[in-house]
Write a structure and sequence with these properties.
The protein is of the alpha+beta class. It folds into three domains: about 80 residues, Rossmann fold (3-Layer(aba) Sandwich); about 60 residues, ATP-grasp fold, A domain (Dna Ligase, domain 1); about 170 residues, ATP-grasp fold, B domain (D-amino Acid Aminotransferase, Chain A, domain 1, 2-Layer Sandwich). It has eleven helices and 17 strands. Strands 9, 10, 11, 12, 13, 14, 15, 16 and 17 form a nine-stranded antiparallel beta sheet that branches. The protein has a four-stranded parallel beta sheet with strand order 3-2-1-4, with helices on both faces. Strands 5-8-6-7 form a four-stranded antiparallel beta sheet, with helices on both faces. Strand 9 and strand 10 form a beta hairpin. Helix 1 packs across helix 10 and helix 4 packs across helix 5.
């Protein structure tokens, strides 16, 4: 069983650990440096975070000897992605604080567990059914109807591991498309908008949320985020309240993103939670240039036990991802007055790969 550790005091000059070497880890490391905190990045492969880390370890997440050495070198550990193996999180949590905690990580890693947890809090989600075989899928399709969405229970992001079942489709064939893995079937939600709440909770229970984001996806990948979202104030307040409830129930420390669907328009608006991401999030990238405290600095503040920062927004903000070859326009973007360009240092611009982003404050 994991032993719980009291928060180890962290001060400028100390070192914290990050699991994962992607762009989120890179931006976390840069934010930590701004506060005088050093970063040790642990990952099986090199990546953008390695370029800016104080210390780097390249080893498998299952390498206990390397993990033990890593744990001995840092005051606490966090992670930049939710697919950290449960063994890794538990192994480290037996030795030092891990934020967010392994329980929160485990809840978010399994879509069935996650949605059951949310429903247990009274938080609305799409209707769903667990799928372990073709017979269970056939029953679920009859119950939830078409269209419906088949999703693997684990390891899905940016549209991976999911497929739509439409009228005329053979459910068994669709199941094979996702590898016949343990899955859930979700009823289709006719949403008007996709929004997200990025918020932080400290170990002392302090809470701070950014204005609700409005998100537009293309090919299942986030394309544009606008803050604030074009929803009613009451809807925005309900989204933040829902997020605070989730954070408290998970005893969460750090930044989280809660992705939601807005169903209906105007006075009929209501919220349905799609999923939670136990980490800093793409839809919060605008905070680097559009808010007093970025989501990355906020995460460092929360996990280190520092006071949470102001989430005040400077104006209406738009963040656009640079995906694949879109990054090749970096020179033109740098010439654009008011454009804040962030490039992740990835060497190959593959289709669907997030290479950077650009933020604009469109209304002061």
């Amino acid at each position: 069983m994991t032993r719980l550790h009291a928060q180890t005091p962290v001060a400028p000059g100390d070192t914290i650990g990050i699991l994962g070497s992607g762009q989120l880890g890179r931006m976390l490391a840069l934010a930590a440096a701004r506060l005088g905190v050093k970063v040790h990045v642990f990952c099986p492969e090199s990546g953008p975070a390695f370029d800016v880390a104080t210390t780097r370890t390249r080893a498998a997440y299952e390498d206990d000897a390397a993990l033990a050495k890593f744990a001995a070198s840092v005051k606490l550990v966090t992670y930049e992605f939710e697919n950290v193996p449960s063994h890794t999180a538990e192994f480290l949590a037996a030795r030092l604080p891990v934020h967010p905690n392994p329980g929160a990580l485990a809840t978010s890693q399994d879509r069935f567990v996650e949605k059951s947890f949310l429903n247990g809090l009274g938080v609305a989600t799409a209707p769903f059914e667990p799928i372990d075989n073709v017979a269970a899928l056939a029953r679920a399709v009859t119950k939830l109807g078409r269209p419906s969405i088949l999703k693997t229970r684990r390891f899905g992001y940016d549209g991976k591991g999911q497929a739509m079942i439409r009228r005329g489709d053979d459910p068994a064939a669709v199941y094979r498309l996702i590898g016949s893995a343990p899955a859930i079937l979700e009823g289709f939600v006719p949403f008007a908008k996709e929004v997200s709440v990025v918020a932080a909770r400290g170990a002392d229970g302090s809470f701070a949320a950014y204005d609700v984001n409005e998100n537009v996806h293309e090919n299942h990948i986030l394309s544009v985020t606008t803050a604030p979202a074009g929803i009613l104030p009451a809807t925005a307040a309900a989204a933040v309240e829902m997020t605070a409830k989730i954070l408290d129930a998970l005893d969460y420390v750090g930044v989280i993103a809660v992705e939601m669907f807005v169903v209906g328009r105007g006075v009929t608006e209501k919220l349905i939670v799609n999923e939670i991401a136990p980490r800093v999030h793409n839809s919060g990238h605008w905070t680097l240039d559009g808010s007093v405290t970025s989501q990355f600095e906020q995460h460092i503040r929360a996990i280190c036990g520092f006071p949470l920062g102001s989430t005040r927004r400077y104006g209406k903000v738009e963040m656009r991802n640079l995906i694949g070859d879109e990054v090749l326009a970096w020179r033109e973007l740098l010439r654009e007055p008011g454009a804040c360009v962030h490039l992740y240092g990835k060497h190959e611009a593959r289709p669907g790969r997030k290479m950077g982003h650009v933020t604009r404050i469109v209304e002061g």
